[in-house]
Design brief:
Layout: H1 8-30, H2 35-68, E1 85-95, E2 98-107, E3 110-112, E4 134-137, H3 144-149, H4 158-164, E5 167-172, E6 180-182, E7 201-204, E8 207-210, E9 222-224, E10 230-237, E11 240-247, H5 278-282, H6 291-294, H7 302-326, E12 328-332, E13 337-339, E14 342-344, H8 361-368, E15 370-372, E16 375-379, H9 382-392, H10 394-397, E17 423-424, E18 427-428, E19 435-442, E20 446-450, E21 461-462, E22 468-469, E23 486-488, E24 490-494
The structure holds zinc ion.
Zinc ion (ZN) binds at residues 181-182, 184-185, 199, 210, 212, 215.
Length: 496
């Protein structure tokens, strides 16, 4: 067979000849050393430079890999998204009296803290799941040297990292049935159990669903399990009532209901139309029924509200599946700061407040939604807030620990993370500063607020972090209302 052109062997020989000729010319030109000596020193010089370059390139790649998550550990559990997870932290904790190994995903773009604290609670260690594992978002806008210097959170750079990098805390969810149910879950009879009424959530063929045969019609209509039935107790403190509100996390009697009496529910719409029929509610032309409030649909009424609900349900299902797959989610360490277009979770930020239409529930909901590295981001759901309370435990249920720092001026909000005794499992601002919008709906027009805020009293009383608030007019909890004492909180789940 005839071949046209130049063969590889011929090309190599040609190049070698050219190189030798070049060497000879140079040799003649400088008039010193032989050809082979010159070639040897050139090769040595080349190799030394190549080694230097390789070190520089691999250093840069290591930094880029930590940012982009292109190089996750090879031991990630089956089913994990290797592109979304940069690293994993393994820890054995005692869960319900049993030693259990938790493997916590560190989303790409983040690093887990190595900070071991200095002893007291405010500066406690951040490297343990049981007391609040903290992750820090690497700042892509920094120069490569700045990023390189802060890829590990240690005692030396901790203070700098607190105010410069966004932080989130891992909320473990060891039992998905504690957090998610389907719309058929029903109250148990007064005495005894009726197993047909209780959900059982499992992943089947990649779909998260309720496997209770009696719930077949709603098996993928998943919703938040909301612990609004709480035990009350109260103490009298200097003439004020201090409440304890302990959610009954062992109960499985929650109901998803569109009927309007105390019907905390999610995901759901509020249109100011009262009905137990969803299609009728969707025809409402207030709040979620207004296209311009959220940008979904093509006109007011059914188009707007049903598109908004569809999007919300999709987000909820993704979140639920991720929490099931990874055994938890992340919560922002602080009330949200910065601006709606660039929301932060850092210490010492001016907290975003629900002071105008530009910062109302819809704007916060939209601003919190998106992608952060290997994680997806949302406004906190009610069931996520409940799981955070469950994780913190009894210190979140009782009293009002930050009240001693109170001011009588309700507008006197402080910067994020500055009330040094308002920290629980490394999460700041739960019991102080502002209330926090959630996605949870109530009645025909309310989105539910969680967390206490830093005034002396609320209707003359002190409440703990577990408190839920929804009612108007005093609290202005309709999503288009403005009230300067409301902020919000962000959650992240590993993108699936
Ligand atoms: Zn069910």
């Amino acid at each position: 067979m005839n071949k046209k052109g130049i063969t590889l062997v011929a090309l190599v020989i040609t190049v070698i000849v050219l190189l030798i000729l070049a060497g000879v010319v140079i040799s003649i030109g400088v008039g010193s050393n032989g050809l082979f000596e010159k070639t040897n020193s050139a090769v040595e010089g080349w190799n030394a430079k190549a080694t230097e370059e390789n070190v520089t390139i691999s250093n840069a790649l290591a930094i880029l890999n930590q940012i982009s998550g292109d190089n996750p550990p090879s031991t990630l559990p089956v089913g994990w998204n290797e592109e979304a997870v940069a690293d994993a932290v393994t820890e054995t904790s005692t869960i319900a009296g049993v030693n259990k190994e938790r493997i916590v995903p560190i989303p790409s773009g983040f690093v887990a803290s190595n900070y071991q604290g200095t002893g007291d609670e405010h500066t406690g260690r951040e490297d343990q799941v049981a007391s609040g594992l903290v992750i820090y978002q690497l700042d892509k806008t920094s120069t490569i040297e700045d990023v390189a210097s802060i890829t590990e959170i240690t005692t030396e750079n901790h203070t700098l990292a607190l105010t410069n990098l966004n932080q989130y805390v891992w909320i473990p969810v060891d039992d998905i049935n504690s957090m998610i149910m389907c719309q058929s879950n029903a109250k148990l009879p007064e005495n005894g159990e009726d197993i047909a009424k209780v959900c059982n959530i499992e992943l089947e063929n990649g779909v998260l669903k309720c496997t209770n045969p009696a719930h077949e019609s709603t098996s993928t209509a998943l919703c938040g399990r909301l612990y609004y039935e709480t035990e009350f107790s109260s103490n009298n403190i200097s003439g004020k009532t201090e409440y304890t509100k302990a959610p009954k996390f062992e109960l499985r009697d929650q109901v998803y209901s569109l009927n309007i009496t105390n019907n905390y529910r999610e995901p759901s719409v509020v249109t100011n139309k009262s009905s137990s029929d969803l299609n009728t509610i969707l025809t409402g032309t207030s709040y979620d029924g207004v296209q311009t409030n959220h940008g979904f649909g093509t006109s007011n009424g059914t188009s707007a509200s049903s598109k908004f609900l569809e999007d919300m349900e999709t987000e909820f299902l993704k979140m639920a599946k991720s929490v099931y797959t990874y055994g938890g989610f992340y919560i922002s360490r602080y009330e949200i700061g910065g601006s709606i277009s660039n929301i932060t979770s850092k210490m010492n930020q001016i907290v975003i407040r629900n002071t105008s239409a530009a910062n109302n529930w819809y704007r916060m909901y939209a601003g919190l939604k998106g992608t952060v590295g290997g994680a997806s981001s949302q406004m906190i759901w009610g069931c996520e807030y409940d799981q955070a309370m469950k994780f913190i435990g009894s210190s979140a249920y009782t009293g009002h620990r930050a009240w001693s720092l109170a001011t009588t001026n309700t507008d006197n909000a402080t910067k994020s993370g500055t009330h040094t005794d308002d920290i629980m499992n490394n999460i700041y601002d739960l019991e102080g500063n502002l209330r926090e919008w959630t996605v949870e709906a109530n009645g025909v027009e309310y989105r539910v607020c969680r967390g206490r805020y830093l005034v002396n009293t609320y209707y003359g009383n002190y409440y703990p972090a577990t408190e839920r608030r929804y009612e108007a007019p005093t609290n202005y909890n309709s999503p288009t209302d403005t009230a300067g004492d409301i902020s919000s909180r962000r959650t992240l789940y590993v993108t699936i």
